[in-house]
Specification:
About 35% of the residues lie in helices and about 15% in strands. The chain has helices spanning about 15-25, 45-60, 75-85, 100-110, 225-230, 240-255, 260-280, 305-315, 340-360; strands at about 5, 65-70, 90-95, 115-120, 145, 150, 155, 170, 190, 205-210, 285, 295-300, 320, 330-335. The chain binds pyridoxal-5'-phosphate (PLP).
Length: about 350
């Protein structure tokens, strides 16, 4: 067996320990005589799995009691619709557009009401986070929406926007559990788990209870109502049961690693190794304004498309996978999520140094 260093933006690297444990439990989960994939989601065994997953996540993120944790399906993208359908009471919301995912959410919200773009960094290919200290947020806006870590462009909100008292909704797909967060500052935090937590197919929504109401937009399907899922504790219908089980294992792995502060230190160390190299390199250069750099997704370029392609090809041959940038921006991108070991980044930088020497 040989494992590569996988720098994919998502689905992405998972802790090897978790994969091994899951492999061991594949045929017989804790004496049940079956795989978690094969068991009823109403069984006692499964009930323990989902309850423990929620309890561990609550502990890790220090989630206050007045927030619900929902394990849903449809990816992060379905939330682009679920959020307005459930939260747009005045049919108005403010969107901060810092990349493609934020833009998609903004465009989807327009189907349901008056989505207002209050800030954008499109003018410089989303390479920075706009000043959000005094935005023209409409008084009757139901919420302010951000994509907290921009997976494609490699930017991250280091301070949350001043929402002027409005509910903050954040897509944290690509920075979920990468550092401590103050959940109480948000109305909704959500993310697809395939970037930093588990297998694709699960989206986790952490939502303040007062935002969960019967009062959704007319025509909202039953399956898209937060209240239905909250009342049923994520078991209204069959949940993505196996995916949730793996998420639960990753939560336990993060706890064992020391929780979110330890994760942050580990992620800062990795990011520093890579950014320091990019700052000194004559061949490679980072594309993001320094103060807005993401700890998770690190885009970089050589300035020549041919050289970029040569690098990606040679890197792949050397065991560094998925370094090609998003199809919309080109260049390279190294995603260095929680489960990427420090050696992975150290070896990548050593490889980049060598490549620079040979191609400088
Ligand atoms: C990947 C990603 C999405 C889309 O996730 P899906 O689960 O494929 O719908 C949305 N937002 C962000 C920030 C992402 O990184």
């Amino acid at each position: 067996m040989s494992r590569v260093y996988n720098f994919s933006a998502g689905p992405a690297v998972l802790p090897e320990e978790v994969l091994k444990e899951a492999a061991q439990e594949m045929l017989d989960y804790k004496g049940s005589g079956m795989s978690v994939m094969e068991m009823s989601h109403r069984s006692k065994v499964y009930d323990t799995i989902i309850k423990e997953a929620e309890a561990d996540l609550r502990e890790l993120m220090n989630i206050p009691d007045n927030y619900k944790v929902l394990f849903l399906q449809g990816g992060a993208s379905l939330q682009f619709a679920m959020i307005p359908m459930n939260l747009m009471k005045n049919r108005k919301a403010a969107y901060i557009v810092t990349g493609q995912w934020a833009k998609k959410a903004y465009q989807e919200a327009k189907i349901y009401g008056d989505a207002v773009e209050v800030a954008s960094s499109a003018d410089e290919t989303f390479s920075y986070i706009p000043d959000c200290s005094d935005l023209p947020i409409p008084e009757d806006a139901d919420y302010v929406y951000i994509c907290e870590n921009n997976t494609i462009y490699g930017t991250k909100f280091k301070t949350l926007p001043n929402t002027k008292g409005h509910t903050l909704v954040a897509d944290v797909s690509s920075c979920f559990l990468s550092e401590p967060v103050d959940v109480s500052k948000y109305g909704v935090i959500y993310g697809g788990v395939q970037k930093n937590i588990g297998p694709a197919g699960v989206v986790i929504v952490i939502i303040r209870e007062d935002l969960i109401t019967e009062d959704t937009l007319p025509g909202t399907p039953t399956m898209l109502k937060y209240k239905i899922h909250a009342d049923a504790q994520s078991l209204y219908n069959t949940p993505p049961a196996y995916g949730i089980y793996i998420c639960g294992k990753v939560f336990k792995w993060i706890k064992k690693m020391g929780g979110l502060s330890a994760m942050k230190a580990h992620n800062e160390k990795k990011a520093e190794i890579l950014y320091d190299f990019l700052d000194e390199s004559k061949l490679f250069k980072g594309t993001v304004r320094k103060e807005d750099r993401s700890l998770m997704n690190v885009p970089f370029v050589t300035g020549s498309e041919e050289m970029d392609a040569k690098f990606v090809k040679e890197a792949k041959e050397a065991g560094f996978e998925n370094l090609k940038g998003h199809r919309s921006v080109g260049g390279m991108r190294a995603s260095i999520y929680n489960a990427m070991p420090i050696e992975g980044v150290e070896k990548l930088v050593a490889f980049m140094r060598e490549f620079e020497k040979n191609n400088g």
